[in-house]
Write a structure and sequence with these properties.
Layout (H helix, E strand, L loop, with lengths): L31 H18 L3 H5 L3 H13 L18 H11 L3 H12 L3 H6 L2 H12 L5 E4 L15 E5 L2 E12 L6 E8 L3 E8 L5 E3 L13 E12 L3 E2 L5 H7 L1 H29 L1 E2 L2 E2 L4 H32 L7 H9 L2 H26 L9 H9 L9 H17 L5 H14 L11 H25 L7 H25 L5 H29 L2 H14 L7 H15 L5
Parallel strand pairs: 1-4, 2-4
Antiparallel strand pairs: 2-3, 3-7, 4-5, 5-8, 6-7, 9-10
Helix pairs in contact: 1-4, 4-9, 5-9, 9-10, 9-12, 10-12, 10-17, 10-18, 10-20, 12-13, 12-14, 14-17, 15-16, 16-17, 16-18, 17-18, 18-19, 18-20
Bound molecules: flavin-adenine dinucleotide.
Length: 583
Amino acid sequence: MAKQMSAVTKGGSFLINESPAEDVFTPEDFSEEQTMIRDMTEQFVEEEVVPQVAKIEAKDWSVTTGLLKRCGDLGLLGIEVPEQYGGENLDKVSAMIVAEQLARVASFAVSYGGHAGIGTLPIVYFGKEEHKKKYLPRLCKAELISAYALSEAGGGSDALAAKTTANRSGDHWVLNGEKMWITNAAFADVFITFAKVDGQQFSCFIVEKGDPGVSTGAEEHKMGLWGSSTRTLVLDSAKIPIDNVIGEIGKGHHVAFNILNTGRAKLGAGAAGAAKTALNDAIRYAKQRIAFNKPISSFGAIKHKLAEMAIRIWVTEGMVYRSAGMMDRALENADLNNAQQVLKAIEEYAIECSILKVYGTEALDYVVDEAVQVYGGYGFSAEYPVERYYRDSRVNRIFEGTNEINRLLIPGMLLKRGASGQLPLHAAVKAVVDEVMSASIPAEPSGPFGAEVAAVAQAKKAVLFVAGSALQKHGDAIKDEQEVLMHISNMVMETYALDTAIHRLMKKGSTDLHADVVRTFITDATARIEFSGKQVLAAASEGDILRTQLSALRRLLRWAPTNTVKARQRIAEHLTDQGRYTL
Ligand SMILES: Cc1cc2nc3c(=O)[nH]c(=O)nc-3n(C[C@H](O)[C@H](O)[C@H](O)COP(=O)(O)OP(=O)(O)OC[C@H]3O[C@@H](n4cnc5c(N)ncnc54)[C@H](O)[C@@H]3O)c2cc1C
């Protein structure tokens, strides 16, 4: 495989290239300023948000809006807004840090994201100069609160099937329809709203609460996120000023979908933060709960859970900060006052953003589920916060593009990049097939973690080999083979996780404990890759060809399992000694 030395890493290239470890940004690389932002946000959450959880969950919107104003005072609302419009314009790593810290109280984090993320960024990236001047300084201070109104009752994933219409009438637009599931609707002043001009051209509008014909419905009764407002936005011949179109008429999908990339990455960061909170609670509880005259943390079954929770968190946060680091690197070459350049630099990593969303939210669901289990019956009681973490976590797999939609996007975007020549995927697949046919086994790289580095390189080849076989069988029709694409997507995600884990391990400051984490992860992730790979191959081939392909897959994934029982015991004992996640 080619050594990648270019300063800016191409999105999706982790599948075919080896990046030098020093090119991969990790949480250990936070600058002094980033560490300060982390500490400040952590302190804000600990001292000002957590004590208000009961009121937030009881839908006391004055608390939520008050806390949003405090975020404005602390400079947390304009992280991605240029300074000339009242923002801080910080790097993406800092944006992830803030998302990670705020996720400790999920309802508030969602209100924050609905406002500072999807509710503000359409104006930053697509608004006219007068929109930016009029709204952004006030949004950055929470003098105005924003919401994002894309979904409708008839279509969330299929957003372009929207039925809401916008018709021109003199110097106004007249909007008719109902948007559903709108976060912050109870107290939002501004709604970034999507509607079809003349029922045809999907477009984006700024709708204000006070515009004639605008109202909101009743609160949804939700499984979780009780402390976030979710209502319909009702547009009953709503009169909207003619200049309130964001972006071009008929190009609303550019606004709708481009805005989601950083949102997805931040959801991954939030998942890591929420998962750490659940794990910390589980560690504390496991240390003090006595059963059979022992703390339950001394039982192997509980050690396994604590360690596995920590491993998934470590891997997820690694991917979050690596991806943000790549965006920041790309943004160094962009004119930060040119919104389109900024957007393009971020879009380069759309594959990684989808991976963070899916992998992070599923890791979080695993962690909160096991946290409830560690608490036993008390985990099912509303007396302990793990019950809330469990309910609050579930929706993350549904919004910002369901995990199915994001899973489909990952191979879809890779194939597009391959076809357009942005990524030399076809050459990489051919090289792997040639290598497999020659039945040669590459020498293991020498040096530290040689076997681990080799296992990750082989896993990449296995994914390319399997994907290449599926492509050969299905050709362009692969886009209709969703089950196959889901498996390929799982393999690609595990590869990004593996590649990130090994790079983080190779960085200075890693310990034996980190080696335990990575070896355990390699053992499990390569087994998962093999599981998916077998199913894709069996859907593409049969008989002798299938047998040959399966044995090639086994050869590629020839990592010998390490003693994961002992490794997880060491990790769990470290966690209980420390009393919290400190990997
Ligand atoms: C608490 C909460 C807050 C929300 N906040 C907002 C907000 O602020 N603004 C906003 O606009 N929206 C918001 N949403 C809406 C959310 O984005 C949608 O619910 C989501 O996009 C899914 O759409 P849907 O509910 O219509 O499900 P559907 O699109 O009907 O999906 C149902 C199932 O079918 C699957 N599916 C759909 N299409 C395909 C396909 N092509 N291939 C394979 N599988 C498919 C989905 O993955 C899912 O499993 C929120 C939702 C919730 C629950």
